[in-house]
Amino acid sequence: MFRGIPKVNRTPILVRVKMALSELRKDYLLDRFVIVPTEDGHGNGNGNGRSQKKHNKVCLYCPGNEHLTSSAVLAMVQKDGMYQMLSDDEGSHVKDWCVRVFPSNEPAVSTAPSVAYGDQPLYREPAYGFHYVVVAAPEHKQKLSKMHIDQWVNVLLVIQDRVKWLYSQTRVNYVSIFAGYGNNAGSNGEHSHINLVTFPTIPSTIMQEAKASERFMDDSGSCPVCDIVNVESNGPREVLSMQNFLAVCPWAPTYPYEFWIIPKRHSPSFSSASQMEINDLALMLRSTLGGLCHSLKDTYFNLAFHLSPEKKNNVMIHWHIEVYPQISNWSGFERAFGVYMNNVSPEHAAEVLKPSCRKELAESLGVK
Ligand SMILES: [Zn+2]
Ligand SMILES: [Zn+2]
Ligand SMILES: [Zn+2]
């Protein structure tokens, strides 16, 4: 476990190359980890679920092709208005599922034994962990931005169940939840899904947010994200407000039209969200993603949950979801210095997104 003083903003764990067994290498100087194949690993995946979902042009995630993936660790089935959480037995697959979870065919991390450890400046550790794919709906063409609220509730319940289970496993110190839509986001034309990837170490962005939160709490006595909710509610950057969640374009957005979804109640993790909060979040996700894609011509986007690491009580953030539309590419400025150019102010972005998100919300609720 490497922990230290964070030095730069937004240094995601990079997952780009094909790999089977992989290791986490830390930057010479920064608290930034990169996943690379082990020296003797040749790899057959690319670690982020981008290319192997099609097997002889068959979608591995579609119903009927369950035998082409690993066994489902969880398959949600709807029966007589009730839901059951089932799992595949050896040789037989749960049919008629509405959400299906199984180990990725091209995992970024692995629970296979590996012995790659090293000290500074060549710090490395095994990329130990679990990588699950949560297929969001049986229908191949179902977009996350158009998915019915009830199905969003199902997906969120399944994610919550899996996150709790993953944190009960040894060497799981962080569970990352992320999804994408579109070429740049890694899922263009592919079956909608969400990735759950665990890490033995806490990702640097989460550490930076936690350290900053701690400093803010020490100085002001309050949680900075609770303050954001107070300051941004009914302000020029508010996108949508629901009973339990607020969507805002952040004050200093890294991406044009970036927005965050924040629980109004102070809460460190999505694991403890109540059924009522999950219902509200489903409506919020559907309305804002629908509004985003309506406003910006079905734009590509990435979506990530930022949660507290549940095994580390001293590392705490007020959880939230960040959505990054993929409209412009980073230049050398962003890549080299961590200073971001954004040609769309968050105030303008909120002005554009707000009416579309409200319209999607009204339609979802059946209000004309
Ligand atoms: Zn499919
Ligand atoms: Zn808070
Ligand atoms: Zn965040």
Output the structural class.
alpha+beta
Q: Are any ligands bound, and if so which?
A: zinc ion
Based on DSSP secondary structure assignment, what is the total number of beta strands?
Answer: 16
Strand order of the largest sheet: 6-5-7-9-11-10-15-16-14-13-12
Average pLDDT value? 88
Question: Spans of 5+ residues with little confidence (pLDDT < 50)?
Answer: 1-19, 42-55
Number of helices: 6
Query: What is the distance, rounded to the nearest whole angstrom, between the alpha carbons of the first and last residues?
Result: 53 Å
Range of strand content? 15-25%
Global outline:
globular
Largest sheet: 11 strands, antiparallel
Radius of gyration: 20 Å
| Residues in helices, as a percent range | 10-25%
| SSE order | EEEEEEEEEHEEHHEEEHEEHH
Characterize the structure shown:
It is a single chain. By secondary structure, the protein is an alpha+beta fold. The chain contains six helices and 16 strands. The strands form three sheets. The protein has an eleven-stranded antiparallel β-sheet, sandwiched between helices. Helix 1 (149-167) packs across helix 4 (275-295). The longest helix has 21 residues, at 275-295. Bound molecules: zinc ion (3 copies).
